[in-house]
Amino acid sequence: MNIFRLAGDMTHLASVLVLLLKIHTIKSCAGISLKTQELYALVFATRYLDIFTDFISLYNTTMKLIFLGSSFSIVWYIRNHKIVSRSYDKSQDTFRHYFLIIPCLLLALLVNEKFTFKEVMWAFSIYLEAVAILPQLVLLQRTRNIDNLTGQYVFLLGAYRALYILNWIYRYFTETHYVHWITWVSGLVQTLLYADFFYYYFESWKNNKKLQLPA
Amino acid sequence: KEENEVHDEL
User: Fold this and answer.
1) Hey, are the CB atoms on A56 and B1 less than 8 Å from each other?
2) How many CB pairs under 8 A join A and B?
3) Is A212 among the domain residues?
4) A164 in any annotated domain
5) Could you say which of B4, B6, B9 has the minimum Cβ distance to residue A5?
6) How do residues A122-178 score in pLDDT, each as one tens digit?
7) How far apart are CA A63 and CA A82, in angstroms?
């Protein structure tokens, strides 16, 4: 464990907590893409298949349970909670996220660390996470006024993977044979997808005006 | 198990 990875995990945890705060306290999911939440639930479900077979540390297992529990409960809230589901605008959240799942699955079958079910599922989760934010970014472009919590949620979610890139650089230089092209390339693509969001997020923060993404 | 077989990152 290094400071970059711990900061990354804490940033990721913070993004989940901000989203849960928004949904649980103001009972609203306005501006939140259910499709991105469903993709993330699938990412964690396919990545943490080893949660009961490979014990790494209490920290690792605890965080996995938190990410699994929060992602599925957020999906449940938006789909089934009588008040929250009313603030979900189905007509705006139109990204065909199933078109993301198939290519990621095919790629995982071709490019993986070992051709076993768990490893293919793990690679699938890495590729899927790289593109999981797309429905959310498309929705943000359509959302006229993005509320602060939604903006912070997306920012933290993008920042966590950027911190992981620093973690991979650190581990490359401090650990022998630490090379993981699958996570490195996917993590870089994932972070680059946030590039224009980060730009507009900092602009709105610097000029102290409402966050607005150009359509 | 070798180190790189178990994914130690979240």
Assistant:
1) no
2) 25
3) no
4) yes
5) B9
6) 999 999 999 999 999 999 999 988 999 999 999 999 999 999 999 999 999 999 889
7) 29
